[in-house]
User: Which sequence fits this backbone?
């Protein structure tokens, strides 16, 4: 489970599966109708609805052109090889790698939002 | 033959499967078969006989129809059982591979340094494989529309809008229709969402009612964003262009010289078309120079590609019809402008496109923008052509690719350096100036003992480059001399008419143009003359031209000093575009050769101050003597603009080992003798100008170092001087810091020190603080350092 900030307000993350909305909310453990649910849904939309599913994209359109997904991510999304090594460093099957951009998400800053986001991401990582 | 066997095999398997199925069903539903003697044979013969009665007439009918419709039974037989089409396929492939190799050998295409970030390659993919990429184009259109500010705002204010619907692609035959329908869907959606009234950003009354009452307050906050309907229109137009591209059969890439059209198209041919096994032919505009009168491009292609006269262009087209693996023949022609008879070639090309309109042919062309508009402009009237401009937004490289590009250049030109052995400043120069990177690599190609590079000495780079090129291209030196002489005597520094040059020089230019880095041919209009376009010659890299002009004047300076003085005085007038560049190279030469007379002459001109400040940092450090440092010191104290320029140049020289004569110590020396007023005038106002908005030079310096620390780009030798630098700048106050985009503080240097403190041991940190406190006289700086000492226990 990795989440990495890229230049130009882009983010790339790797997960072992693509969650459905229901699974995601359950995993986040938020109560219905609360701010927590709104927050979780917003994150869900960013990560699963708006984000580009790069593995699917690679397989469907580019796998016969680029020899590996790393090569594809380097060329199409300008992700440095060092960052790619970090993303792919964890062993195990990665069935979902997403990329999205959001200028309002300052995860490098220490604030309530970034802490909540990191907590949530950690929860998703636990089986 | 193999294909024929494959089809036969598939047919046999299918028949066996059907036979098995019928056999099974018969036994299952009529078990009485099992009681009949020899039942498997009898049942099988019954099934075969029944199938024969039903299928044979049908098969014969299909065969007859096929033969009558295709009218090409011989070709069909050749295709399945002969070698003709195998030979054609392999000749076409071999030809294209050979052509790409030719481009590599001439260095017009350097695969190692190709960086594919530009959208053009992606759009070429759509064009080449429209059926495959149709869903992606739909997806992008939906995504971009959804993300446009206008549509986002409609969602934010809870205005009920439907999602845009694009038709699904059923089969390959209706692609064009589906693309047309997709464009119509975009227009209809435009009508649906165009709900803003005449008052800027306000919804029309009838639309306002559709927002739920409990959400109307959101509208009052966000309605201003509804003014940006253009944000939707822009993505709509982009989507329409993509849908048109999917249905077109000619794509034309335009762009200025040196923007990488050849690299792109060669890479695309090699790593996309050939790699995917597409049937493609690659040509350059020059390949068609020998076209005979009345010869068509198809005939020329047959002549160029096939040595055996019995193969024709139409045979390649037959192959695309017969072979299911080849939907299309791709004809790639790079550099239309390289053809010697542009008018005739433009006409032939137009005819080719029209003839290929209903055939399985896709054409990809590249052309220099200005030549395209002048000579091939008629092509844009063809309805099946899409233009892919290779300029403007989207062609900048990302930092990731910039670093990769530099390393690839070094590898390709066998330069024994990597990113770790060149300074951050040099990386910056190479990233911003790709031509300088190319000149540098060619100048030092194969040099084994190249030391680490801390700065670029342009004079030396050009000198080496010219020496190497003059050895490789016969007559180059003489030709360049002729062009430069012409420039000086006619005060004309660009658009030199070819007919004004000797035939020998014209021949050398033709030769060098192909390489595309020294000179290029351009097309200019001759005022007042109808159809009066003329070919002219220009230097590709202005800096190289100015270096050559300076070298020419330096030679005169030694031979006829008086004449050279007059020439220099005339040419450095600000009205000439070369004035500044010329002064820079003359200044560089006089510093490197300690020619104080020439420097005296240059000091009389207006630009000398800024030229000297720039050039002193571009000559090898060992040549910087006390005299030059004294001149620089005077300039530093003269104005805050000069002080700013010098400080910005000095921050790259924090390591005194690399720059023993002119390093950051120069700045510390000046600050140590400053009083508070002088600090305010030169340093504070120099680095935080009163009229600065988004950012300031001070903030740029801070951010550059913060990033360099984070990326581990700071070496041990520079570290202590960097801390000294920020301590020296700690008195700088940015009163408008809240208005800026940077995350820095009212005291940017103090904030930077806070962020980089972790890279120093406490002992080292305190010791440098104390040292600076004792050497600097400026009160505000002393106070800031005192605060740091209090904070960190000094």
Assistant:
């Amino acid at each position: 489970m990795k989440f990495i900030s890229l230049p130009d307000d882009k983010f790339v993350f790797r997960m072992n599966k693509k969650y459905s909305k229901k699974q995601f909310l359950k995993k986040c453990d938020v109560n219905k109708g609360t701010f927590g649910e709104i927050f979780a849904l917003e994150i869900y939309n960013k990560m699963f609805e708006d984000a580009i599913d790069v593995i699917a994209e690679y397989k469907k359109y580019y796998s016969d052109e680029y020899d590996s997904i790393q090569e594809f991510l380097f060329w199409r999304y300008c992700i440095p090889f060092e960052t790619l090594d970090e993303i792919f460093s964890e062993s195990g099957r990665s069935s979902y790698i997403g990329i999205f951009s959001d200028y309002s998400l300052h995860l490098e800053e220490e604030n309530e939002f970034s802490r909540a986001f990191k907590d949530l991401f950690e929860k998703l990582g636990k089986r | 033959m193999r294909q024929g066997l494959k089809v036969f095999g598939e047919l046999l398997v299918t028949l066996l499967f059907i036979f098995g199925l019928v056999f099974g069903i018969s036994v299952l539903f009529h078990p009485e078969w099992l009681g009949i003697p020899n039942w498997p044979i009898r049942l099988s013969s019954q099934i075969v006989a029944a199938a024969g009665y039903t299928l044979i007439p049908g098969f014969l009918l299909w065969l007859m129809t096929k033969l009558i419709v295709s009218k090409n039974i011989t070709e069909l037989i050749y295709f399945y059982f002969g070698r003709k089409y195998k030979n054609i396929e392999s000749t076409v492939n071999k030809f294209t591979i050979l052509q790409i190799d030719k481009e590599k050998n001439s260095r017009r295409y350097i695969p190692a340094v190709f960086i594919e970030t530009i959208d053009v390659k992606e759009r070429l993919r759509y064009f080449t494989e429209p059926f495959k990429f149709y869903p992606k184009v739909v997806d992008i259109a939906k995504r971009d529309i959804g993300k446009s500010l206008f549509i986002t705002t409609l969602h934010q204010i809870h205005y009920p809008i439907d999602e845009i619907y694009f038709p699904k692609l059923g089969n390959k035959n209706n692609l064009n229709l589906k693309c047309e329908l997709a464009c119509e869907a975009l227009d209809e959606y435009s009508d649906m969402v165009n709900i803003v009234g005449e008052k800027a950003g306000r919804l029309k009354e009838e639309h306002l009612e559709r927002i739920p009452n409990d959400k109307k307050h959101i509208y009052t906050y966000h309605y201003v964003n509804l003014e940006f309907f253009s944000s939707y229109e822009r993505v709509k137009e982009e989507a329409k262009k993509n849908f048109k591209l999917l249905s077109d059969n000619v794509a034309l890439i335009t762009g200025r010289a040196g923007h990488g059209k050849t690299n792109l198209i060669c890479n695309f041919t090699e790593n996309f078309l050939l790699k995917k096994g597409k049937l493609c032919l690659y040509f350059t505009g020059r390949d068609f120079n020998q076209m005979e009168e009345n010869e068509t491009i198809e005939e020329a292609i047959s002549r160029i590609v096939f040595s055996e006269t019995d193969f024709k262009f139409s045979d390649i087209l037959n192959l695309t019809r017969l072979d299911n693996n080849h939907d299309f023949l791709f004809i790639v022609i790079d550099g239309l402008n390289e053809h010697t008879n542009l008018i005739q070639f433009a006409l032939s090309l137009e005819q080719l496109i029209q003839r290929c309109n209903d055939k399985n042919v896709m054409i990809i062309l590249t052309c220099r923008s200005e030549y395209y508009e002048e000579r091939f402009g008629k092509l844009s009237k063809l309805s099946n052509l899409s233009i892919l401009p290779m300029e403007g937004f989207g062609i900048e490289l990302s930092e990731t690719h910039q670093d990769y590009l530099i390393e690839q250049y070094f590898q390709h030109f066998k330069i024994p350096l990597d990113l770790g052995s060149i300074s951050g400043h040099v990386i910056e120069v190479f990233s911003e100036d790709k031509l300088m990177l190319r000149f540098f690599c060619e100048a030092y190609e194969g040099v084994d003992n190249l030391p680490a590079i801390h700065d670029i000495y342009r004079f030396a780079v050009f000198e080496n480059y010219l020496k190497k090129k003059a050895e490789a291209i016969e007559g180059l030196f003489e030709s360049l001399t002729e062009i430069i002489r012409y420039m000086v005597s006619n005060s004309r520094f660009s658009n030199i008419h070819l007919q004004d040059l000797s035939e020998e020089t014209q021949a050398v230019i033709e030769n060098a143009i192909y390489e595309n880095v020294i000179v290029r041919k351009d097309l200019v209009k001759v005022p007042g003359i109808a159809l009066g376009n003329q070919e002219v010659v220009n230097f590709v890299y202005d800096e190289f031209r100015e270096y050559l002009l300076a070298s020419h004047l330096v030679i005169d300076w030694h031979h006829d000093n008086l004449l050279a003085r007059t020439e220099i005085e005339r040419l450095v007038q600000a009205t000439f575009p070369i004035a500044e560049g010329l002064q820079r190279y003359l200044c560089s030469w006089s510093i490197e050769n300690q020619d104080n007379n020439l420097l005296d002459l240059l000091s009389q001109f207006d630009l000398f101050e800024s030229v000297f400040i720039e050039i002193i940092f571009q000559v090898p450090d060992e040549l910087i003597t006390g005299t030059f440092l004294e001149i620089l010191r005077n300039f530093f104290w003269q104005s805050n603009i000069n002080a700013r320029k010098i400080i910005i140049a000095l921050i790259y020289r924090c390591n005194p080992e690399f720059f023993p004569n002119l390093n950051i110590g120069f700045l510390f020396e000046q600050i140590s003798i400053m009083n508070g007023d002088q600090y305010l005038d030169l340093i504070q106002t120099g680095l935080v100008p009163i009229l600065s908005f988004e950012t300031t030079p001070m903030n740029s310096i801070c951010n550059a170092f913060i990033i360099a620390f984070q990326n581990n780009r700071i070496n041990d030798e520079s570290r202590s001087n960097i801390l000294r630098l920020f301590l020296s700048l700690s008195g700088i106050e940015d009163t408008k810091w809240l208005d800026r985009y940077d995350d820095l503080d009212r005291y940017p240097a103090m904030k930077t020190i806070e962020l980089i403190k972790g890279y120093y041991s406490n002992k080292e940190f305190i010791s440098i603080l104390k040292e600076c406190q004792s050497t600097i006289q400026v009160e505000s700086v002393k106070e800031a350092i005192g605060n740091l000492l209090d904070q960190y226990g000094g």
Strands of chain B lie at 250-255, 279-284, 329-334, 361-368, 385-389, 496-497, 519-525, 533-539.
